[in-house]
User: Fold this.
Amino acid sequence: MSKNATTHHRNRRVLVGVTGGIAAYKSPELVRRLIDRGCEVRVVMTRGAGAFITPLTLQAVSGHPVHEHLLDADAESGMGHIELARWAELVVVAPATANFIARIAHGQADDLLTTLVLATTAEVAVAPAMNRQMWLHPATQANLDILRSRDIRIIGPGSGDQACGETGPGRMTEPEEIASLLAGDPADMAYAGRRILVTAGPTWEALDPVRGITNHSSGKMGYALAAAAADQGAEVILVSGPVHLQAPAGVRRIDVRSADEMLAAVLENLAGTDVFVAVAAVSDFRPARPAEHKIKKSPGEDTMTLELVRNPDILATVAALDSPPFTVGFAAETRDTLANARDKLAGKGVDVIAANDVGGADSAFDSDSNTVTLVHAGGEISIPTADKYAVAVDMLREIDRLLTGG
Ligand code: CTP
Assistant:
């Protein structure tokens, strides 16, 4: 996705730093809550954190090995510290001890986590947790002022009973509240409680075990829609033809090859779906009789005839069901874009056609940007040219309006 896209979506790649305080037992809960909101999470622990929680626990909840050492040859050959700093869209340190806050206030880089804080350009937030006297100490307060002056966000701490037996400020803010502050409250998102099924990418229609009919669809638009819908709280199923893209965070991807497989996967997963968006570039035809073994050329054979048969129309099939979800199709056109889109809207019986002018340089098949006009029974809505994630966000907003009649 283009750099522009990061200005639109919430922080999805989150690096959680855990330092050595008793509140570290709450860090796995924070990791969980972030993942619930569609974030991908990597964890870095300081040496002190190891006294309170094991890397194995955090590895189990985050689904990735925990990073602990600055100069660990194994870790550096996987995702090195600079790569990790670049990967993150948000760094949140919870709990952050008084010592850790002092170290980052003074620009130290004496372990992996402090080094990452120096090396990253991502947003940084800390959730302090410490004894109340340590919190109230002028040294800690001065360090916090330095952090604030550098736009590091300070979350909490709360007040109450402390592990040390005292009562006062210094309790780490609860994980649910930290996650909600940083990644939004799922219940407030436009697509919370809705299920979206998206098809994306090309199909592959086998001719024999090594050859097939396919097309240049990159899958980028479908993947951007899936990512944007997940970011807005939807449960997303992405039925994908063969592409070179990673499944967006929080999206369930089902891999298929042919149009027949795509149709079967769609129908199998359609129950409970509120919105179906067909972005896949489905091959209209497939070889009538795919060969079981590799087709060999024979001497003197100068031409070859392939018999093709019509593939099912997945979008039209879904739209024709008894109680279909809200259906959205795409129409890639090089001329008469809107007229063709209107024909498709009526012909396939769908709610919206996203007409896509593939003639221009900004809207080519493999491009990162797109220009789309939504054609529906009541009119047309133009979506300005933008990167595909931003177009997806705009499309979802308009689809939500049409769905709710707003
Ligand atoms: N579609 C589908 N199943 C097919 C063919 C298309 O679900 N077998 C969907 C696509 O995902 C897209 C829309 O239908 O949402 C595209 O419609 P289609 O009529 O196939 O577009 P073109 O192939 O561009 O049609 P034509 O060549 O007739 O212009």
Notes: The radius of gyration is 26 Å.
